[in-house]
Specification:
Layout (H helix, E strand, L loop, with lengths): L3 H4 L3 E10 L6 E9 L8 E7 L6 E5 L6 H20 L15
Length: about 100
Amino acid sequence: MTDGATAKRHLRLQLVSLTLAFDDVRFFGAAIFTDANDPDGPWATVLIDHAGEAPWFRLTTTDPSGSDVSEVAMAETDRLMRFVLTHQPERIGRTRPTPPAR
């Protein structure tokens, strides 16, 4: 559910931190964003956690109000995690998928 104001909101990524758990399979972390137009305003923090089924991660916002910044931050973190799992899965303890046989 995105309205015009949310769609035009630009965030600036401040920090991404992903850590492998002791078993080298599970991971957890956070992504922190600021509003590009108001860098001193409230930060949007998204917590990232391992999940046992696709898409292999779970996201949680720390903003209980569900502000526009948090909504965009959740979407950006989802996009970031899908990129990592597709192009660099070994960085978070995953292996690259085997391409289908032709």
